[in-house]
Write a structure and sequence with these properties.
3-stranded antiparallel sheet, Chitinase A, domain 3, isomerase, 12 helices, globular, alpha+beta, 4-stranded antiparallel sheet
Length: about 350
Amino acid sequence: MGRTRSWLRERPLLVPRPGRAWYVSALMLALLAAGAGTQIAVAEITALPADAALRVEDTVITEQQLADRVQAFKALYGVQRPDDPAAVERFDRDAAKAVAVSEILERAAQEEGIVIPEKAAQDELDRLVADAYPAGRDDFITRLGQVGLSEPEVLAEIRRQLTNSRLFDQVTRDVPETTDADVQQAYDARRDEMVDPEKRHVRNIVVGSEAEARQTLDRLNTGEDFAAVARDVSLDRSTKDKGGDLGTAVREQLDPRYADEAFRVSPNSFFGPLETQHGWNVGQVLAVTPAVPLSLDQVRDPLRQKLTAERKLDRWNAWLGGRIQAAGVEYAPHYRPADPDVPPVDLPR
């Protein structure tokens, strides 16, 4: 069976994944996290300042400014700069590419007269903090201090993403609606994806270090009750009093690293320690619900929405490719993307 997706409904994130469901935000984060490409015209490097990472038209982005943007991505979405030297090189190039695209989009938004009020950005940040930091706003502020960011810097990044989202809406506003015939054709072609995906009932304990996580796992392996240990040591305030119970989740609702472990082990098995954005985790799978095929009637509406989103993304990529080529982006050698002409391939969720 092919890769499954949740077609029935979206559910809140139980172990937060980095990023929110904005088309453009997801595109930029995919560049950072997965190395997905976007068409970028790479000009010859001509007289870039010594501390420059790239230049978009008349704007130079220094290495420090690029690092500051990456820190904002880290605080907001959990994007981590890798330790492996080869991976670091690709990460830096993809980060430079993402920032170049961001600069180009900012100019396009200005041309369209798009302005995001400060209150809208603050409201969005409040929602993000509530979703991604279940322990509360103090946890978010602590995280900012750890990565050396201020809240105004984060708000600026939020405003960029909201601006890009509105720009996306303008660029794609005349994309044709998806017809019933389109839905039927897509259902027939993608039948192996039309499933209510496998679900797992998971409990989780969050602690502050790998050593604490290993101590926690040792306690569980010697027979201590999971719920009691969670109430004793877990840092996750939203699940601590429930004995660490996260409820039932599909793979896409979990942090990717966490999901890989949670969907690998057998029922009643422990997994971890593993580190995510919010700390070190030790989990347990209580039950597994197998994937179930879905009928056309069950997926008709979400499939229609998905097809429309795909068409909008095609329109967006065509428009964005033209804007990027016209911008004549210049990169310092260390930051020049390895795949500057490869368009993005993933549909943001």
